[in-house]
Every structure is written in C-alpha cells, then in structure tokens.
Design brief:
single chain, Immunoglobulin-like, seven-stranded mixed beta sheet, five-stranded antiparallel beta sheet, elongated
Length: 317
C-alpha cells in the first residue's frame, strides 16, 4: 500500500532514525523529548500529504495510532501512553492512510421472558450462554466480505480458521472508512479466553495478544421494567442484579463503562429501536420514537466493560 516509510526509535531516551527517500521532502526529525514521562517529536515533511503514524516494540508487529496531514511542512507527534515500561519503542511514518485493527468480544446471556408483564421472569444464577469475536477495521479501502476473513483463537476457543458471520457483520460501502466483522457464536466455551488471537484479513494475519477478558466474573444482570400505555412502549427503567444470587445492587459495578438497550422486532425488521449510549449512573430511558408492544419480539440490555468487551443480556417477549 505504501511506497516509502521513515523509521525512528526511542531507545532508553536516545532518538535514532533512518530515512528512505524517493519523493517529496525527506523527513527531518526535530524537537524530540521526553517530558513528564511522555515522548514527543516534530517531523518536518512535505505539506498536504496524508501520513500514518505507527508504533512497534520489536520492528515486526506495527500498530497504527492515527493519520495526520502535514501543514506548514510539520507534523507533531505526541505519544499519550507514556514511556514507563518501554525499554525500546519504535515509530514510523508512512505515506497515505493505513488500516488499523482492534479485537474485542461479545458475550451473551439469555435472561428470561416478559410474557406480557412489565418485568421479565428471570432465574438465578445467571450464566453466559455464548460469545463471538469481533474485528473492527478502520481506514482501509475495498473491505472484503465477512466470509473472506477468518478467526483463529487460542486452544479451546472453539474458533479455528472460522469465517466471519455475514449476518452480524457490518461492511462499509462507498466512502465509509470502517467495517466490523463478527465471528460465529460459540457456546463451548461460553466465554472468550485470553491468549493469542489471529484474524486473517485480506490474506495477512493480524495477531492480537489478549489478556483474560474475565467475562464470567463481569456478568451482571441489567434487569428492566417496561412502561406501556395504550399498547405503546413509553419508557424502560432498570436495576443491576448480581448474576449469581439475583440480589439488587446499589448501582452499576465499577467495570461497567456504558449501557445501551435495543428492542427487537420480527425477521423483516430485526431491530426497531436503539437507545443512545448511556452512562452507568443512568437507570431509565424514555423512548424517542413510537414502538408498539405488539411488534416486539424481545429486548437486549447491552453494556461495555472497562476492558472494551461487550455483554448482551437478552430477554424474550
């Protein structure tokens, strides 16, 4: 994708760089410093070109951390991660935009049915029932079909060279610059394991080292109450309940970072309402569009944890 790249590395406080020339202005690295545990540098380079900044600790695996267009022949690089714990850190700048990748997991639990009541019938203890892996791709072009990418997890993950699921993936078209690919649902094991994950994307393996997601211990039951007037859903409120005992908690656990709920319809209209992302302290939401109770097949109360993984607690109607 790229014709040329420029590399420089921060090694125990010393700045080293080499250049590959061939077009435009060769980069000049200046004002490099470590202040307050944060590395920064400026690069004098050709203006009005889009460049991608990537980082690595071993010159083998590179992660894109953002793209920027040089103005006034200058790009300023600030690495917000800090230098603590890095004995060696390499940076490179590539001409153009580079695809970047992230991997997370969706964890699912079936939490009972409403059966035309305002609250669902739920049995405790509650356990996870399945999971899937999700690959987020940004800043690429010509996104492939979901069935053309392949997920492989660590031993026991249940995923080995498994194609993406087109029904649950979202492929960008036109000028969009991101796509999401989801694996098939895996019920054995019901929780995603940590370890080395590999996703083959356009013939190249993208490798992720995943710490233990701790999914089983981070399941909390978001327990809803519906308000329905004249056959129209007006609002939903909820409390958090311990997944093992059903005890009502005083609020959201510390690992919950945000919440969203969905209302499911029939096969021709699978999702008929999405709430906005809500902060954990919010415990109710008034619908902003008309949803008839008779059109509803179920509900999903979804939250994201502080490790970036997503949990969906599903209720049937």
């Amino acid at each position: 994708m790229f014709k040329h790249g420029w590399y420089f590395s921060l090694i125990l406080g010393a700045l080293w760089y080499s250049t590959f020339t061939g077009f435009g202005q060769s980069p000049v690295f200046t004002n490099a410093s470590v202040a307050g545990g944060t590395f920064s540098a400026q690069i004098i380079i050709t203006s009005n070109q889009l460049y991608t900044i990537q980082v690595s600790t071993n010159l083998i695996h590179w992660d894109s951390v953002g793209s920027n267009t040089a103005t006034n022949n200058l790009i300023t690089l600030v690495d917000p991660r800090g230098t603590a714990g890095f004995n060696r850190q390499y940076y490179r700048i590539l001409l153009g935009a580079a695809a970047n990748f992230s991997l997370d997991f969706l964890e699912f639990a079936n939490a009972g049915n409403f059966n035309s009541n305002s609250t669902p019938n739920t049995t405790f203890p509650m356990r996870l029932t399945s999971y899937s892996a999700g690959l987020q791709v940004n800043d690429d072009t010509d996104y492939p079909a979901a069935t053309n990418i392949f997920f492989t997890g660590p031993a026991g993950s249940g995923l080995t060279n498994a194609p993406g699921d087109p029904n649950n993936s979202s492929i960008s078209g036109g000028h969009e610059n991101s796509s999401f690919y989801q694996s098939a649902l895996i019920s054995n094991p019901a929780a995603a394991p940590g370890g080395t994950w590999v996703v083959n994307y356009k013939g190249t393996n993208q490798t992720f080292t995943v710490t233990d997601p701790q999914a089983a211990s981070r399941l909390v039951v978001v327990y809803p109450t519906l308000t329905v007037v004249g056959g129209v859903v007006q609002s939903m409120s909820w409390v958090y309940r311990d997944a093992a005992t059903g005890t009502i908690l005083g609020g959201a656990p510390a690992y919950v970072s945000n919440l969203q709920f969905q209302i499911y319809g029939n096969s021709s209209q699978p999702t008929i309402y999405n709430s906005p992302n809500l902060t954990p302290d919010i415990t109710s939401h008034t619908l902003t569009s008309t949803v008839h109770y008779s059109d509803i097949s179920g509900f999903g109360l979804a939250y994201q944890d502080t490790l970036g993984n997503n949990y969906v607690v599903d209720y049937g109607n």
